[in-house]
């Protein structure tokens, strides 16, 4: 068994990438997704990609899967009915929540507060109390609890969350309640806050654990069913799930803690972009994943994606490590419209989706979309997906023509307006992860992928000043690349509130090492050998009296040598970078964290044959395009025939099975050894 398979399930297509671990050669494919049961598309795609590669499914040794099952359960409101057990006096914890309303001042007037994931009638109180130091100050009243549990049983809850005040300091009561629940309501999934998020802040801990219970039944059923189907088809292959922070985890862990895979899909794209770009020598990146409905952007610095401590899905914001991805409603299917009141062109966030889709898809869509604008301007070929999908240019012109009529301009000006606006929307998202975080985008390369990303990347590079713009091979299935090339990962954390004068370097080091052992045991249970594990550490710090903390990376060796002061210096610099100032105040530790990663993955990107710099062998024909109000003749290339070292002068269009790349006038693209197309302005061309 010499093959590994990456599978990424999207709303419209399921992407697959098969890698030969001996030769590093790849086979890619796309199959229609099956939203009612995503496992059907996974199995169909596996069989199809194996047939395409002329191998047996039993030749696959490792399958890595990015999934949106948990995400969709939250977005569609189709999770489980959750029973919640809290400490007496905290029954309304989810209803009180935090005083935050999105949308600015007007949000207080028009924002409908979302319903909590656990209803008040499904919440019971446990008579118990543990103080902040972990001391039991009131024993658990087990008899009363058993009586109250009958209410949850009568309500037919499908999952139970146990979240007690200060359980992060001592989980003895949570564990005992779990035992009682298992007796009173057998076989119901139980989530403990002391296991899911053993950190201070009872609301965030409760909400995160309730979210875990909310998605757990559906996610667990899906993963266990798919695991059984895969084993029946392939034998004893390794099956792992992509975490929100870009690592992998086993099926059992993912089934019990699915809250850690809420951002599984976007994390795959960032992991894939980092993998291919780092092999080409670029480690400071902005990533742009543009699909049919939305665009995800993220920042990677020094070969490491920016990891946030919060994950936001719809109206739900929970405490779980994830790649810091920002999403904007700008995609190939984003609908253009001209409101009657303002007569100003708008694009998105509404999307035509897969059905009916853009007018050019010929499935009944009549509203103008970004895809239709690209067709009108000549940027898209007459067919997509290797010829499987034909485009209806007449329908695209008719749809964009309605926008042109409403604006009293010609159809080409309307199409360029649509493209300019959607580019500005994505530009704003990219600024959120760069400029507004204190990073200069001119210091980063821009990696574009997704079905629509390479069409818009060159223009966005010009807006950001981010060069080169990197378009990796197979950009439409790069999320599957990320799934197939990442590694197992685990983390362990705990709250440890100490001001620097009240603790010592020895105490902090001991706590960090204990956390590392806990995290290492998770990887070891997946068969990872001790010498294959790399560990790193983080500390959440604040100035004493602050209401928030900042996460900083730390090294045990430096703490042991220089004391905790070295951690304070790192925090001061990060605080100054983020907020432009540092304080002369006592530093306070809030949380400690250990992160461990396996180093088993040795997949290398395949290399192209060297060429002579002239891409003539890939040239197919010339096509008329419009850009900046001017008409150009652009050469159209078959990207699969390009060779290393080829230089493509813009304007040019590169076509491939899963995406189309546009190089705009006054720019050029260079093909590197790994098949990446690096786009730069002509002003950067070597003399």
Automatic annotation (TrEMBL):
GO terms for cellular component: cytosol. GO terms for biological process: glutathione metabolic process. Residues 205-490 form the Hydantoinase A/oxoprolinase domain. SUPFAM superfamilies: Actin-like ATPase domain (SSF53067). This is N-methylhydantoinase A. Residues 512-670 form the Acetophenone carboxylase-like C-terminal domain. PANTHER family: 5-OXOPROLINASE RELATED (PTHR11365), HYPOTHETICAL 5-OXOPROLINASE (EUROFUNG)-RELATED (PTHR11365:SF23). It holds the Pfam family Hydantoinase_A. Residues 4-183 form the Hydantoinase/oxoprolinase N-terminal domain. GO terms for molecular function: 5-oxoprolinase (ATP-hydrolyzing) activity.
């Amino acid at each position: 068994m010499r093959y590994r398979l990456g599978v990424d399930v999207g709303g419209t297509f399921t992407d697959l990438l098969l890698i030969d671990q001996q030769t590093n050669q790849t086979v890619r494919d796309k199959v229609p997704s099956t939203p009612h049961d995503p496992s059907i598309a996974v199995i169909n795609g596996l069989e199809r990609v194996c047939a395409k590669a002329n191998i047996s499914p039993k030749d696959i040794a490792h399958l890595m899967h990015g999934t949106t099952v948990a995400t969709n359960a939250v977005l569609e409101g189709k999770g489980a009915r959750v029973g919640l057990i809290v400490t007496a006096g905290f029954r309304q914890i989810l209803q009180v929540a935090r005083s935050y309303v999105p949308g600015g001042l007007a949000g207080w007037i028009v924002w409908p507060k979302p319903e909590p994931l656990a209803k008040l009638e499904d919440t019971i109180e446990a008579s118990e109390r543990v103080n902040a130091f972990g001391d039991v100050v009131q024993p658990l009243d087990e008899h009363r609890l058993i009586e109250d549990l009958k209410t949850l049983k009568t309500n037919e809850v499908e999952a139970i969350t146990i979240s007690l005040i200060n359980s992060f300091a001592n989980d003895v009561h949570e564990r005992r309640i779990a035992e009682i629940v298992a007796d009173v309501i057998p076989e119901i999934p139980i989530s403990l806050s002391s296991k899911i998020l053993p950190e201070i802040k009872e609301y965030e801990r409760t909400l995160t654990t309730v979210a875990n219970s909310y998605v757990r039944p559906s996610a667990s059923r899906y993963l266990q069913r798919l695991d059984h189907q895969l084993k029946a088809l392939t034998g004893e292959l390794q099956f792992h799930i992509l975490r929100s922070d870009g690592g992998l985890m086993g099926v059992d862990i993912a089934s019990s803690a699915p809250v850690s895979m809420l951002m599984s899909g976007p994390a795959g794209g960032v992991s894939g972009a980092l993998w291919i770009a780092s092999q080409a020598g670029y480690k400071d990146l902005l990533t742009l994943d543009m699909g049919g409905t939305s665009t995800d952007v993220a920042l990677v610095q020094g070969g490491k994606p920016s990891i946030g401590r919060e994950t936001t899905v719809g109206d739900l914001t929970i405490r779980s490590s994830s790649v810091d991805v920002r999403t904007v409603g700008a995609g190939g299917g984003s609908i253009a419209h001209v409101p009657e009141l303002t007569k100003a062109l708008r694009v998105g966030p509404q999307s035509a989706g897969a059905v009916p889709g853009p007018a050019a898809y010929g499935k009944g869509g009549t509203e103008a979309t970004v895809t239709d604008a690209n067709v009108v301007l000549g940027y898209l070929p007459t067919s997509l997906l290797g010829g499987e999908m034909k485009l209806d240019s007449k329908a695209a012109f008719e749809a964009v023509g309605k926008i042109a009529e409403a604006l009293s301009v010609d159809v080409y000006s309307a199409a360029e307006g649509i493209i300019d606006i959607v580019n500005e929307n994505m530009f704003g998202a990219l600024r959120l992860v760069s400029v507004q975080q204190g990073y200069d985008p001119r210091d980063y390369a821009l990696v574009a992928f997704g079905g629509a990303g390479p069409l818009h990347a060159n223009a966005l590079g010009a807006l950001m000043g981010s060069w080169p713009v990197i378009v990796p091979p197979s950009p439409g299935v790069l999320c599957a690349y990320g799934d197939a090339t990442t590694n197992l990962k685990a983390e362990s954390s705990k709250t440890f509130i100490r001001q620097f004068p009240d603790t010592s370097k020895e105490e902090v080091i001991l706590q960090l090492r204990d956390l590392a052992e806990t995290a290492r045991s998770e990887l070891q249970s997946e068969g990872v050998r001790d010498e294959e594990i790399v560990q790193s550490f983080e500390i959440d710090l604040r100035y004493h009296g602050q209401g928030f903390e900042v996460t900083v990376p730390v090294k045990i060796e430096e703490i042991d040598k220089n004391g905790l002061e070295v951690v304070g210096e790192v925090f001061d610099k990060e605080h100054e970078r983020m907020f432009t100032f540092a304080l002369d105040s006592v530093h306070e530790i809030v949380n400690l964290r250990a992160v461990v990663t396996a180093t088993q993955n040795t997949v290398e990107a395949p290399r192209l044959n060297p060429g002579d710099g002239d891409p003539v062998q890939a040239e197919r024909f010339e096509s008329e395009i419009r850009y900046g109000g001017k008409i150009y003749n652009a050469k159209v290339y078959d990207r699969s025939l390009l060779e290393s070292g080829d230089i493509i002068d813009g304007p040019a269009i590169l076509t491939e099975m899963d995406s189309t790349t546009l190089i705009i006038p006054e720019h050029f693209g260079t093909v590197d050894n790994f098949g990446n197309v690096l786009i730069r302005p002509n002003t950067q061309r070597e003399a």
